[in-house]
Amino acid sequence: MSQRIMGKTIGRYMLLAIFMVISIFPFYWMLIGATNHSSKMFSKPITLLPGKEFITNLVNLNDNIGIYRVLFNSLLVSGAYVLLALAISTAAAYVLAKFRFRGANLIFLLFMLSMMIPSQATVIPLFKLMSNFELLNTYFALIVPQLCYPFAIFLMRQNFMAFPSELLESARLDGAGEYRIFFQIVLPSMKPALAATSIFLFMTQWNNFMWPLVVTTSSEMYTFPVALSSLMGVSFTDYGQVMTGITFATIPIIIFFLMLQKHFISGMLGSALK
């Protein structure tokens, strides 16, 4: 019996190891491409060892798109978006979860229905709005128009719904104001949900391509998706530069996720159970 159990355990670990290799290989191939010349990516046999062309690819990439400016733009836009969208989503979710007023369920239903509207359908109205206010090619236009994120409101509301309303009533009886209740009692217990929502918001804005492409008119305001798309030529594409740019675009997402992964897992699990 013990040998049978041991065989099953070994089989599970082997299966997990295979899936791990499959999952990690695209990142390894990205690093291989960033350290080799573009021609070696399609050579036969396939090159699977790091090369010595990373600095050359980085210099060429910076000459073409200004990688450090693009990195600054992406970090600024994504960071500001996460902070502002998280504040708006958290406040809206708390009101919809813990305050009883006429039309609360209808408002929440409208938020959910808005998730079914393709984002491309809002591009033209938002573009005209930014153009009328002469805000094109600004950080304001990149950040503000998409701050209301329905999924973030839904995720936070599900966690607020599980918070005991008796604690809120007890705090009100003790004379605590609504702002003190929200910031000192409710929010500290919502760290896992806040972390999970922050990761979703960060990845949404970091990978956003359509809206920055439409609203930016100069390369100085490009974010990573737009800047990397400009590297794809019609007749020739330097994949060494592309892979180097993708490496720079991937590292911040990995770091951000690793910083919040524990809270992310518990936040998602908590929202599912609640």
From TrEMBL:
It comes from the Bacteria. It holds the Pfam family BPD_transp_1. The chain crosses the membrane at residues 12-32, 70-94, 106-127, 139-160, 181-203, 239-260. Keywords: Cell membrane, Membrane, Stress response, Transmembrane, Transmembrane helix, Transport. One of its GO terms (cellular component) is plasma membrane. InterPro entries: MetI-like, MetI-like_sf. It is found in: Cell membrane. It is a multi-pass membrane protein. Its main location: membrane. GO terms for biological process: transmembrane transport. Residues 71-260 form the ABC transmembrane type-1 domain. PROSITE patterns: ABC_TM1. Belongs to the binding-protein-dependent transport system permease family. This is L-arabinose ABC transport permease protein.
